[in-house]
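Notebook, p. 212. Picked up where the previous page left off. The plan for this session was modest: take the two constructs that came back from the sequencing core last week, fold each one, and keep the raw output in the notebook itself so nobody has to go hunting through shared drives later. Recording the first one now, exactly as returned: residue sequence, then the structure token string.
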Amino acid sequence: MHAPSPRPASFSAPGPLRGSIAVPGDKSISHRALMFSALAIGESRVEGLLTGEDVLATAAALRAMGAQIERGEDDVWRIHGVGVGGLLQPEGALDMGNSGTSTRLLMGLVASHAITATFTGDASLSKRPMNRVIEPLSLMGADVTATPGARGGTLPLMLRGISPAVPIDYRLPVASAQVKSAVLLAGLNTPGITRVIEPVATRDHSERMLRGFGAELDVEQGADGARIISIRGEAELRPQHIVVPGDPSSAAFPAVAALLVPGSEVTIANVGLNPTRAALFDVLRMMGGDIQFANPREVGGEPVADIVVRHSALKGIETPVDTVASMVDEYPILFVAAALAEGRTVARGLEELRVKESDRIAVMAEGLRAIGARVEELEDGLIIDGTGGDPLPGGATIAARLDHRIAMSFAVAGLVSRAAVTIDDMGPVATSFPGFTRLMGELGAVAA
């Protein structure tokens, strides 16, 4: 199987960005909607599901383990689940593509079933550490064989699940919604109560949605302020009708573009604003960004609003360390905003960015320097001295390292650069934001 050919592109803004768009469905919620529906008995319906490659990898893996998943002509997905404990032995390896979320959460699902699954992925995913999930799942009784000799436990790996698994109390050593969710999913089919202790709150889509499907799940606050999430195993999940809101991580790119391109005013409709996900918008407001939330409402237990963004003169800040977990995927585009702000932005506490689809600290520092930004790389973040709103020089080709968020961040940087900024490959953007180029075009950006 040959890797797809690179798709280089550059983006420019001949004038202000204006208009109203809707970004694709939330990736985190889309993954979980498919997984939990596959464990319910009966038909669940999901509207607004993200059809990016990462979510399609989740759907394919669940089909391989017995769930019936169909996308209707009305764009409503219908899932007939197998019930908790009902996953079947897949006949072949489960190809996770570029999706760390698919891999880690599905490892949790498989761990408490008496089946064996081999997980594979693309070159980028195969470098990402899985030991953080392997450790708690091994404590529950699963047996995992990762790539010999590789650091951090990497793909391809083989996971032999066990039923019944052993309930555990597990304190997260790193803030990770994926590890938390993997343990909770393993706990669904484990007798007794499985607990995850979370010192730093991470996105809580799993907790909200598991409750919606009928799982017995409780959240308490420990004496030390940690969240203690308890799930009672051998659950019976009820099918649901889910409407997936727009992904705030995707909305971040047109939002920052509107803040930076003079004269712009952009509305991004129907965006999920779960407080464990949407800290970027708070930080941009701290920098002076004109960002309003219109028509706030609740859809399926998730807060949703339309985001109205106007061009603003941004000021550098020291980003609050306590927001890292709730905007970890948005730092690459925040770095672009900082490069155009007035004064210095200091962002620390970002060690997790070094083990994403790429080393996002190093890759962003390298790329921003190449287009003329003043950047100092730290072990755990970046210091950026902004231009005060003046365009960046540009004039470079950026190696995005197969990382969708790096590619989109430099596409936005190109809108506020004097000379073209070429991204070496926009292909990976399809993993999370299919239609990115088209929607930016609707606002007035030009891709070449």
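Okay, moving on. Second construct, recorded in the same format:
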Amino acid sequence: MTDHPEHPDRPRHPGYSEDDVQREVTELQEKSETAARLFDIRRIIGGLFVVYGVIVTIVGITDDDAAIDKAEGVNINLWTGLGMLLLGLFFLTWLKLRPTAPPPPPVAPGDEPSE
């Protein structure tokens, strides 16, 4: 039952070596890291705030006097839109200046440091 001398508990599968397993694990790790960078929460929050900020700012620019009088003389849509734009740009700038840390390089089984 034990065809593999290094791991006597596991039977050997024909056509599927340890190198194949390591290669598959490495590919899955790379895909996971790419997805983590793609769906960074700063990118999502920043993007949404910029989009909504642009919309609300345009509404604030095109507001009539009745809407401004309703807000007691303050163009609330304009100020809120500009604030949202600034917050969104802050998140996107933060993402650009401090990107997610790159993963550590993979260590091959024979490359461990000896003490």
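Notes on construct two before I forget. The chain has a mean pLDDT of 79.
Flagging for discussion at group meeting.
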